[in-house]
Structure formats: structure tokens, C-alpha cells
Amino acid sequence: MDKIIVTGNGPLSGQIPIAGAKNACLALMPATLLSEEPLTLTNVPRLSDIATMSELLQSLGAEVSTLADGRVVAMASHNAENHVAQYDIVRKMRASNLVLGPLLARHGRAVVSLPGGCAIGARPMDIHIFGLEKMGAEIELREGYLHATAPGGLKGAKIALPFASVGATENILMAATLARGTTVIENAAREPEICDLAACLSAMGAKIEGAGTSTITIEGVHRLHGATHPVIADRIELGTYMIAPAIAGGEVELTGGRADLLPAFIEKLEEAGVSVEETQGGLKVARRNGRIRAVDVRTEVFPGFPTDLQAQMMALLCTAEGESTLEETIFENRFMHAPELMRMGAEIEVHGGTARVRGVERLKGAPVMATDLRASVSLILAGLAAEGETIVSRVYHLDRGYEHVEEKLRGVGARIERVKE
Ligand code: EPZ
């Protein structure tokens, strides 16, 4: 397993290109199952999760080819007759559950392995099931697999989600495009990735209103045609790299980044003393003088502060002047980066869903271990500002969600290298 070695090396400067959004792409790819015509995605990020989704779709009978050095994924599902998503693929990535809605809509049946828990929480699928059953699906759990059928086809329904689940909204949205009649999703997730999926489905001929608001209305159609769709910029990669100049000092331009993707996060960064400026090509982030100021953070569904940036923000606040609190309201166990940051001298107290961080002048480099995707990158960010060497092991977590993180950070002056263990 590879390791990444980061050595604190002072302020950063230069540009970092932001790739297409992993979490948009993982919802867009299963949409190919909804049409017999080709669906091509551009601005695709080169990540292991994308390769896993390709493998899953191919196991279902879809043709998936990766072109342009991984930036384009061309899919065709006219022969996709298999409706069983196997455990050995699904267990690798929770987002595999996003084939459930499309398989039901296409075949009237689906067998999808439950993804199983992951490091950050149990991650059940009760809300997905609730919504699809409202549309006439019959779903039962047998030996770890969801066995779903829609004997008479799916029909439009009014569905009030108990929680604005991103994945449940995506599964229901995709299923509703081919259902008979109208579906209204209330308390729908409002993340930009939902808007991107709705835009792609509309380009395929779906009739969708209200994506990005809490109420999405879908008029079912008989069939969807093919499309070519560019994947939206990755707001979590964007936020992650905005923390780099904030924690290490200096000024970095994130090309392809958009301020409207991260309203609450940018507000908190500015409150902490970081300057964020929109430029022609993206966002310019700088921390020139003085220490970061402590701020309080509470993760919420969009447009609130994203849970996927909580670990990275904690790394920044470990070096702030004063005491900050971070409240994690989305996942039940998303502070695993805290003990690793404490190995670097951070002063953190975790009580249930709240972490209290007392900032220190300087973190100290240390050997640390990645536990999940976003925790991994928070340790690298901390290493940028730490005195001495930080060695991050188990970086395969990183490769799931970040393209060539060492190249992008080296490009702005960081001392960082990947070594084979
Ligand atoms: C998506 O996961 C993202 N993944 C996650 O990003 C992100 O953290 C999450 O949304 C929240 O923004 C992808 O888009 C592939 P949810 P998802 O359904 O859809 C509970 C990353 O690092 N819940 O909104 O699984 C669930 O347990 C990943 O890129 C139920 O209880 O998130 C969790 O506590 C991590 N029942 C909360 O809701 C359900 O049926 C949020 O889940 C569904 C969810």
C-alpha cells in the first residue's frame, strides 16, 4: 500500500485545476440504464470509484468505454439485461446502490446487494426503499440483498422524504423519469449534484421541474434518448484545495471552481480570516497575514456546510487562534481524523457528534493513518502546515476521491511525494 509523505514547506502559490465531481458522476453513470441509446459523460474525474461504477455497469450488461485519458465515459445499455448487482462489487462502494432505481425503471425488477456499513456510519437504505415502494415497487431484504420488483411497472406518487437523503433523491428521481404519471418528491436533497443529474436526465428527454429546490416534480415519459453531458465541477475537491493556502499560507487559484457551489463553506472560511475572490477562471484563495481565527461549524444538508468538508475544516481549525466547535449532524461517526490529528499535536475533544478544537501555533509532523476518503485528505492538509514530516499510510482511500493529489499540491509548491510501501 502506498504512503504519502508531506513536509511543511511554507506558503503556497499557483493554480490547481478542479476536476469533475465524483458524487455527480456516480449518479450520472447509472442513468445509462434508463435508455437504449448511448449516454456519454465528459469532464469525468479519473478516480477508482469511477472505475468501480464502470465495472458494476458492465456486470449489468452495459457497454462502458473510457476515452480521452479517462476524461470521457461512453456508455450504451441496449443489451443490459442483467438486473443483479453483485455484493463483491457493491461492497466496495456505497454509491453502487444508485443502480436500484434505474434497474427497477428499466426491467421492473432489481436485485441489489446492501452496501454494508462503512467507516463513517451504518448508511441504511430505508429512505430509498420508502420512496420506491410509494411508486409501487415491492422490496424485501433476503440474505443481504434487496429484492425489488414492480410487477405492474412504477407509477408516479407523492413522496415526502423523512430526511433530504442525496442518494434516495437520486434513486427516486431516476426511477420517476419512466414511471406512469407524475411523481412529486418533497424534502428532496438540494445538492448541486442533484441539479446536475436532473440536467442530464432532461437532456435525455425527461420532464423534471424544481431540481435544486426541496420539491421536485417529474412527469414520467415512455422512453429516454441518448445524450452527451459534462459533469459539474467537484465542490468537495474545490473546498478541500481552498483549505491548502488557508492552512499553509500564500495564495492559490482554483481553476474551474465556482463560488455558488459552496456558499456556507466560503462564508465560514471568510469568517476565519481567509480571503476568497472570484476570478475569470475560478476562485482565488489567500491567507496573507495573521493566524486563522477560530469559528464554529455545524454540518447540514445543502446549502448548509457540507459534511464532506468537515474533516478538512477541522485540520484548518487545529491551527486557529482560539477554540472552535464542529458539530457533525449528517453521519454518526465522522471524527476518525481527530485522533490522527492529535498525533500531530492538535488539541481536540470529541463528545458524541461535537468536536471541540483548541488551536495550536504549529502542528508537528508524525506518522498517521487514513481511515476514510475525506479524513485522509485532512491529514495531508495538516501536513502542509506542520513542522517536519507527516507520513500518511493507507492512501488508497484518497485515490477513491482525489485525482493525483500529490501532483496538484506539488504544483503550488508543496513538498509532497508518494512512496510505495
Ligand atoms: C452522498 O452519500 C455522498 N456520496 C456522500 O459523500 C455525502 O457525504 C452524503 O451524500 C451527504 O452529503 C455520493 O454522492 C456518492 P445521504 P449518501 O443518503 O447519498 C442517512 C464522500 O465522501 N440515510 O444523504 O449515502 C445516512 O445514514 C461521500 O464523497 C438513512 O438513514 O448520503 C446518513 O447518515 C461520503 N437512510 C445521512 O442519511 C437512507 O435511506 C446522509 O445520507 C439514506 C440515508
Supply database-style keywords:
421 residues; alpha/beta; UDP-n-acetylglucosamine1-carboxyvinyl-transferase, Chain; 2 domains; four-stranded mixed beta sheet; 14 helices; 26% strand; elongated; binds ligand EPZ
* Broad CATH class of the largest domain: Alpha Beta
Under the CATH scheme, the architecture of the largest domain is Alpha-beta prism
Radius of gyration: 21 Å
The end-to-end span amounts to: 6 Å
Query: Would you tell me the structural class of the helices and strands?
Result: alpha/beta
Q: What spatial order of strands do you see in the largest sheet? A: 22-23-1-24
**Domain unit count:** 2
Percent of residues in β-strands: 25-35%
Bound ligands, each once: ligand EPZ
CATH superfamily annotation of the largest domain: Enolpyruvate transferase domain
Overall 3D shape? elongated
Unreliable spans: none
Bin the helical content: 25-40%
Give the strand tally. 24
What does the model show?
It is a single chain. This protein is elongated. It has helices spanning 22-28, 48-59, 87-90, 100-107, 126-134, 166-176, 192-203, 235-248, 263-271, 310-317, 337-343, 373-385, 396-401, 405-410, and strands at residues 2-7, 12-17, 39-42, 63-67, 72-76, 84-85, 109-113, 138-142, 145-149, 158-160, 182-186, 207-209, 215-219, 227-230, 250-255, 275-278, 282-287, 297-298, 323-327, 347-351, 354-358, 367-369, 389-393, 415-420. The model has no long low-confidence stretch (mean pLDDT 95). The longest helix is centred in the middle third of the chain and has 14 residues, at 235-248. It contains 14 helices and 24 strands. The protein starts with a strand and ends with a strand. Bound molecules: ligand EPZ. Ligand EPZ is lined by residues 23, 26, 94-95, 121, 123-128, 163, 165-168, 307-308, 330-331, 373-374, 401. Ligand EPZ binds next to α1, α5, α6 and α12.
